[in-house]
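JOB MANIFEST
job_type = single_chain_structure
chain_count = 1
residues = 430
[input]
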Amino acid sequence: MTARNRLAGLLARQIHHHLREELQKPSSAVEFVTVEGVPFKDLTAKMIADLEKEFPELLTPRELPFSLMQAWWDESNPAVPYAQSTFKTYNQLMLFRVLDLKHNSEFLRKKFEEKMIANGHALIGRGRNLGFETIFPAETRMLQMISRLARIEGIPDEETIPLLLDQLILTTQTAYRMFDSLFRESLNQTDKILKSVLPEKIADELKKTGKVAPVHVDSASVLFSDIVGFTRIAEELPPAQLLAELDRTFAHFEAAMKPNHLEKIKTIGDCFMCVGGISERNRLHEVDTVLAALRIQEFMRKYQKSRARTGSPSWKLRIGIHSGPVVAGVLGQERFNYDIWGDTVNVANRMESAGEPDTINISEVTAQAVQEFFILEPRGRIFVKNKGEMEMYFVRGILPELSVNGGSRVPSHEFARRYATKRRAIRAKG
């Protein structure tokens, strides 16, 4: 019999003994424990049966020189005694080790790697501290114990050590792949969080260079929305309910922005601010922003109807839009804050405050850019603080010939065709 088979047999007997002891431990340690959704006792019983099938000699009792798992655990100086501990994940590792020693199979090694990576993700997800500083010393102690066992059983070191070194290398490589997978997942999560806070282009620049230079944008469309009578509503609702309502409402606003690639800038209390034209995909940012405003308005209409059916108070919204140059940039070193500045921002805010409940109020600059697409109602010249009188327009919907069934809110194929034609013309101009 080869040293590999002899060592596999010795280790199988030790694990067989250990697993049977697992089933004898206090009920509090095993009764309600599961491993990947399988009851611990059922999984342990299956592992025992698998071992007995691979090593029929285990059915013949034999005295052990010492209990490998207990000695390994006791040497680790645990806070919980061996008799009160269960070795859920490690039992699977040791069973694999026995089978790998016997069969030396690449297929088994691949399955082991997959399980280790899955277990690593599960343990990290449950808040367990997992790192090389815990895995490597524990593995080294175990292999030393196995080496001692082999010596007692008469297997020479020169035959045992290469096998155990191979096991250590395998475990270390697998641990590396597991941590690499965890690291990549963490990077992906970080990337998602960063891009939820900053525009994608800005986030990519920040990752590459560690900083973002301010950007001057010749033309952008800024949208402000504000809830009418919010202060009174805030006094009537419990804070938790108020926050939940705002969160749900702003989530719908963000969803309305996405089809036209607008960027959310910030929320301040009940005020929601976004901008079109920062992204290269917003060549027709004035049209994109008005479309987003109509979607927001439609959501508010449905929201008001649903609240009316239950007799609950509802919110009314003012929306204002203005187009012009802005400066965009990131403030902060530890907590990033993406924002835009310029007179365009101030005027857009004034368009909102000069509007009426449940309306979209736009400036003349924006109106000139969108008149081929939308129904506009002139309001005349209205006084604006620090600006004097300004021409304003209400957006009443999409032009009938550009809307589905001649309605006013859903763009038709003809709308898309006109939009694409104008976009190509703008692109051709550079």
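[summary]
The chain has two domains: 3-195, 211-428.
The first helix runs from residue 3 to 23.
exit_status = 0
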